[in-house]
UniProtKB/TrEMBL annotation:
Stated name of the protein: Galactose-1-phosphate uridylyltransferase
SUPFAM superfamilies: HIT-like
InterPro entries: GalP_UDPtransf1, GalP_UDPtransf1_His-AS, GalP_Utransf_C, GalP_Utransf_N, HIT-like_sf
Galactose-1-phosphate uridyl transferase C-terminal domain sequence ranges: 276-404
Origin superkingdom: Bacteria
UniProt keyword annotation of Transport present: no
GO CC field: cytoplasm
Species classification: Bacteria, Bacillati, Actinomycetota, Actinomycetes, Micrococcales
Catalytic activity from the UniProt record: alpha-D-galactose 1-phosphate + UDP-alpha-D-glucose = alpha-D-glucose 1-phosphate + UDP-alpha-D-galactose
Pathway: Carbohydrate metabolism; galactose metabolism
The protein's Enzyme Commission number: 2.7.7.12
Organism: Microbacterium azadirachtae
Cofactor: Zn(2+)
Length: 418
């Protein structure tokens, strides 16, 4: 075995190209770790060397073994390239290989379902929660992968100081990491359709992946998120989210840092106090409050904020994680109860950067949807798209009242019995 700094784990040899073992054969587990809430982490590799991590529910019905990925896979693509927009300083990634990714396959060709004899998917074994490196990533490894086929980055970033310089024609290799988080082995659904136990397992996985990715060389920010619905641009109906690990601090977070510098380090504490005293709160627990923000841009926009300062998932204690599972499910199920059909949304977990702003930037969920009526979507036209100057059609207080009613109409999530 060899240590691969680009992946942050100990690598096992890839399966030979002529391997013929059927799905379900062999045991590919490299390491087993017990995490919080009784979640068990099992680390392995896919046939081309990409990381695959299983997170087993507490009391899972699954056995400890995991199958070897016996596929013969193509060479992994070169890491994508970033170009800098000299007008803004933003870095734009050009990941041309993403043009060929699968679009809305049926259950018999679902790449996120467990492998079968007729479906050579990305996950060799039955699972509760599975996380693996994206096969068509926007950000890829910096170093050559001795166990697979990942090539070395041609022109990697040389730290934040390098990326913060601005000039014409600047390019860098898009070093980072993109992972897929499968919430369930089922073909259809979303985070909101999962059980409380499963939601708690995913929260543990988010925390573990945040810690792992934050420790990789060159990573500056880690971003877990879920895109839900074709109106958002989802290409797979399978219940899943993603995690991006960026080589820079994202533009949105840079603007937040500027606001904190101008208004004070306790900005999030003051926001929470103000929102808790308003009629925009939609859901509240001992450790979390969900509210429609004072200046919401989208027809549906909710933020979920922890009551104490924590920079990311790794800093949440057990009580905060335990409450988050059912509370987040209530919020999502309320969002779906607004209309007769499921609501498209982006659920974005903003976390503090890895190296800067951790004492002042509080983690939070920002859930947004373009749906402004049962059969209408908000499109970003001239002012919003070109100038980032927004016009909102729905008052935040009215949106909060509708969402409170919707949340009240759905049954409370309960712990499952096995």
């Amino acid at each position: 075995m060899e240590t691969d700094p680009a992946f942050g784990t100990t690598a096992a040899p890839a399966a030979p190209a002529d391997a013929t073992a059927a799905p379900g054969g062999g045991d590919a587990v490299l390491a087993v770790t017990t995490l919080g809430a009784g979640v068990v982490k099992r680390t392995t590799r896919l046939a081309d060397g990409r990381d695959l991590v299983y997170y087993d529910d507490p009391g899972t019905a699954l056995g400890p073994e995991r199958s070897v990925d016996a596929r013969a896979l193509d060479t992994r693509p070169d890491t994508a390239t970033m170009r800098q927009d000299v007008l803004t300083g933003d870095w734009i990634t050009f990941a041309t290989q993403r043009q060929t990714r699968v679009m809305m396959p049926g259950a018999d060709a679902d790449p996120l379902a467990p492998q079968t004899a007729t479906n050579p998917s990305e996950v060799p074994s039955r699972y509760d929660v599975a996380v693996f490196e994206n096969r068509s990533p926007s950000f890829g490894p910096a170093l050559a992968n001795a166990v697979g086929t990942a090539p070395a980055a041609v022109d990697p970033p040389q730290g934040l100081a390098d990326l913060e310089q601005i000039g014409l024609g600047r390019t860098r290799t898009s070093v980072g990491r993109c992972e897929v988080v499968c919430f369930s082995p089922e073909h259809a659904g979303s985070f909101g359709t999962q059980s409380v136990t499963r939601a708690r397992t995913v929260i543990e996985a988010w925390a573990d992946r945040t810690a792992t990715l934050s420790a990789l060389p060159g990573i500056e920010q880690v971003f877990p998120f879920e895109n839900r619905g074709e109106a958002i641009g989802v290409t797979l109906p399978h219940p899943h989210g993603q995690i991006y690990a960026y080589p820079y601090v994202t533009p949105r977070t840079q603007r937040l840092r500027e606001s904190i510098a101008r208004t004070g380090d306790d900005l999030f504490a003051r926001i929470l106090d103000a929102e808790q005293g308003s009629d925009r709160v939609v859901l509240q627990g001992e450790h979390w409050t969900a509210f429609v923000p004072f200046a919401a841009r989208w027809p549906l926009e909710v933020q979920l904020l922890p009551h104490r300062h924590v920079p990311d998932f790794t800093a949440l204690d057990d009580a905060e994680r335990d409450e988050l599972a059912p509370l987040y499910l209530r919020l999502l199920r309320g969002v779906d109860a607004l209309y007769a059909s499921p609501t498209p949304y982006i659920a974005a977990w903003h976390q503090a950067p890895v190296h800067v702003g951790r004492d002042t930037i509080r983690m939070r969920l920002e859930l947004t949807s373009p749906r402004r009526a049962a059969d209408k979507l908000k499109f970003l036209a001239g002012s919003e798209s070109a100038m980032s100057a927004w016009t909102a059609e729905i008052l935040p207080e009215d949106a909060a009242a509708r969402l409170r009613d919707a949340i009240a109409s759905v049954p409370l999530p309960v712990e499952e019995t096995r």
